[in-house]
Design brief:
Strand 1 and strand 2 form a beta hairpin. It is built from six helices and eleven strands. Strands 3, 6, 7, 8 and 9 form a five-stranded antiparallel beta sheet that branches. A four-stranded antiparallel beta sheet has the order 1-2-5-4, with no helix packed on it. Strands 10-11 form a two-stranded antiparallel ribbon. By secondary structure, the protein is of the alpha+beta class. The termini are close together. It is globular and about 45 Å long. It has two domains: about 100 residues, Sandwich (Immunoglobulin-like), CATH 2.60.40; about 70 residues, DNA polymerase, domain 1 (Orthogonal Bundle), CATH 1.10.150. This is Helix-hairpin-helix domain-containing protein.
């Protein structure tokens, strides 16, 4: 699953594209996108997901400056969440959480990351040395199935901000990080993340795509 955000109308609105992989909802079933933006009205078929190839897709324009709760509803699978949501909050129904798309902060276009910065530092008046400072390299961890913006931020803060580092992290360590972050993150299953990250770190994007097509929310 994935949430793609594109600023529209000079920043007052954002076009959000909701995407569900074929393995995450039955291919023979209709899937509805329901949430605050349509008052959770299941009879509103204008929010039915469109099937495109192996995925279900729906793009809607939402006003910036707000957080929207949502879930998916399929005819034969019932309700289910987006594993790449920005956040999760308790719903009015006990034991159930809603997915969240967060537009409270207007998304900005990604800027190219400079990997290396060179500085010349004068140590003394009689002696000078050249020092190369490596700026922390970061990869877009959201390319890993099952990792959304919030989890990517959590992993980066824990020193796992690149595909290479994620590929070398044990599942037990990842589970510990998610558990420490709270119950809304502990529900995620990172079992496939190191394997996905290894393919990404070596540039094997076609193999990664084939693997992700077989996964269900990263599992």
């Amino acid at each position: 699953m994935a949430l793609k955000k594109q600023i529209k109308d000079k920043g007052s609105n954002t076009l959000v594209t909701f995407t569900i992989g074929e393995n995450e909802a039955p291919s023979s079933s209709n899937v509805l996108l329901l949430g605050d933006f349509n008052n959770w009205q299941s009879n509103d078929r204008t929010f039915q997901m469109e099937k495109k190839g192996n995925t279900y897709v729906k793009s809607i324009k939402l006003e910036n400056g707000k957080r929207y709760e949502f879930r998916y509803l399929s005819d034969d699978k019932g309700w289910f969440n987006d594993h790449a949501a920005d956040d999760y909050v308790p719903s009015p129904y006990s034991g159930i959480q809603n997915s969240v798309v967060d537009l409270s902060v207007i998304p900005q276009k990604e800027k190219p990351i400079k990997k290396t910065v060179t500085k010349t530092v004068k140590k003394t008046a009689s002696k000078a040395a050249t020092k190369t400072i490596q700026k922390a390299k970061k990869d877009d961890l959201k390319k890993i199935e099952g990792i959304g913006p919030k989890i990517a931020s959590i992993l980066t803060e824990k020193g796992i901000g690149t595909f290479e580092k994620l590929s070398k992290a044990s599942v037990k360590v990842l589970e510990g990080i998610l558990k420490e972050a709270g119950p809304r993150y502990a529900m995620h299953k990172p079992g496939s993340w190191p394997k996905q990250a290894k393919l990404a770190s070596t540039g094997k994007w076609d193999e990664l795509k084939k693997l992700q097509d077989k996964l269900d929310g990263g599992k």
